[in-house]
Amino acid sequence: MPWWRTAVIYQVYIRSFADGNGDGVGDIAGLRARLPYLKELGVDAVWITPWYPSPMADGGYDVTDFRAIDPVFGTLAEGEEMIAEAHALGVRVVLDIVPNHTSDRHPWFVEALGAAPGSPERERYHFRDGRGPDGALPPNDWRSRFGGSAWTRVTEPDGTPGQWYLHLFSAEQPDLNWANRDVRSEFESILRFWFDRGVDGFRIDVASGLVKDPALPDIGIPEDAVFEKGPWKEGHPHWNQEGLHEIYQSWRKIAESYAGDRVFCAEANSSDDQTARYLRADELHTAFNFAFLRSPWEFKSIREVIDRSVGSLAEVGAPATWVLSNHDVTRHVTRYGRRDTSQDPYRTDYGHSDRDLGTRRARAAALLMLALPGSSYLYQGEELGLWEVEDLPDEAIQDPLWGRSGHTVRGRDGCRVPLPWSGSESPFGFARRGSEPPWLPQPAEWEKFSAQFQSGTPGSMLELYRAALRLRSEQPGFDSGTLRWLEAPEGVLSFERSSVLRCAVNFSEEPFPLPRKWGVLLSSDRITGGLLPTDTTVWLWGGGASRV
Asked: Which end of the chain is more exposed for a tag (fewer CB within 10 A), N or C?
């Protein structure tokens, strides 16, 4: 079976993982030093967010050179050495690829600004004349994911107001035109460049947004619903366009020309049926399950998401890919601690969160996710039980959402605060003492949430993750890709993965009596008197294997 069908992949947001040179920013040297930690944790692969040269207008997702590494993070030689060291430990390496846009300082875009309307240089992007008198209005009503219009007007080389260019994200991230042959050839070459250096796969940023309707029609969706509502609507002019499938079919052929089961994972905001179409046998391998991430901590919602996901993907023979948090959403310890867990995970302005409640639910969610058939992604720090840092000083915030929203949306920096590794005060082992302060300030409470503090501590979040990943790799009950629901009281999810492995999750307000003659393999919370507490997940074992 290909490794990616059941893999647990750990996301490294490289700026915040570990700082090896003391400049306050995470880098390759820091990652290399922590590879043994990832091996001990038990993950199968590491996904590294963009390490390419970038002005950092959007945390590295504004790229100037896709075949190099930003000096802030290290050198290409260091990257190649890191890949080799990870492989020696049995850990595969997945990179981010950002095909929807470049930086506005990318050589192509600089050339486009200096060229005339209609030139080949401008055809690599979406340049259009404006509407209204003197072209003073944007070409259509499309909105940027970061707020405001998705169009910015340029000043032509002769100093006159000129055309507009499209950017679904920040103005520093102009969208590429995937109808252009140069663009397609360039990214096929980029894939080969990194595959040649041993990379095992790519996570595809904005995978559902590359192709645009050439007519560029108005959408008519209110600004506050541009992303959260409607991306998967049939016929949407810049999400899930039919032309995407031809692109990914060509990418799949490139991946299959290399040995070692190279893999793609799509960041695709799409319906279940649309996602399944991306994962047909000749296209991409996996896609993030955002419906699972967005689901409230509620019995019926989570079961419905699991059923839809497993069912729709089974039709194309693809595995589900489960995820609870990432670098773009509020950490799930905080989300699950809210009174209303159905609130949008992309927003951070919902007020108080009960951290103890959120932690208990996060522990339960981790075991639920890791018991499901398919692969899972872990976001750095979730194995430490870290929460969203919601009190960052205004002057420290760097997310472009903050500026483009007129300082009303604090953005994603709260889930990107550098990790605590050891010690009693900042930088908590993120860098050596005496180094530059971390690029975002760390909470003082993280002293007791560091990897060093939790390591070897019974009941800690870190030890729960280590035990779960060890059991997942050792116990044969996890080998099966099937899931069968079992009868259980209202508010309890109970399913089998094999004749000897069961998982139960109690969402109800009453303790749940565990089945007799089944041993507890692992539990997210303490079980007393054979009763499963509320907001707790348990793995049950009916065979002769050793128990934890």
From this structure: N
| Residue 315 CB contacts under 8 Å (≥ 6 apart), including other chains | 276
Order the strands of the 161-166 sheet from edge to edge: 127-128, 161-166, 151-155
Crossing angle for the helix pair 76-88 and 28-41, to the nearest 10 degrees: 10
Residues 128 and 446: their CA atoms lie apart, in Å, by: 50
Q: Is 513 helix (H, G, I), strand (E, B) or coil?
A: strand
Amino acid identity of 34? R
Could you say which DSSP state residue 288 is in? -
Tokens of 1: 């079976």
| Residue 141 CA from chain centroid, whole number | 28
Beta strands in 405-513, from DSSP E residues, in sequence order: 484-485, 492-496, 501-506, 512-513
The counts of H helices and E strands in the chain are 13, 18
Report which of 323, 345, 326 is spatially closest to residue 334, judged by C-alpha positions. Answer: 345
The two structure tokens encoding residue 161? 């107001």
* pLDDT higher than threshold 50 for residue 419: yes
Give the residue with greater pLDDT, 183 vs 269.
183
**Residue for token pair 């979730």:** 382
pLDDT in tens, 5-16: 999 999 999 999
Whole-number Å distance between alpha carbons of 317 and 74: 39
Instruction: Give the span between the Cα atoms of 206 and 101, in whole angstroms.
Output: 9
CA–CA distance, 511 with 505 (Å, rounded to integer)? 11
pLDDT one-digit tens code per residue, 298-351: 999 999 999 999 999 999 999 999 999 999 999 999 999 999 999 888 887 788
Block residue for tokens 């970061």 = 146
DSSP state of 65: -
List C-alpha distances in Å: 328 to 203, 293, 427. Answer: 14, 11, 23
HEC letters along 448-480? HHCHHHHCCCCCCHHHHHHHHHHHHHHCHHHCC
Instruction: Retrieve residue 314's tokens.
Output: 């089974």
- Res. 220 pLDDT band, cuts 50 70 90: confident
Cis check: omega of the bond before 427, within 30 degrees of 0:
yes
Give the span between the Cα atoms of 357 and 352, in whole angstroms: 12
Quick check: 231 pLDDT over 60? no
What is the mean predicted confidence (pLDDT) over 412-439? 95
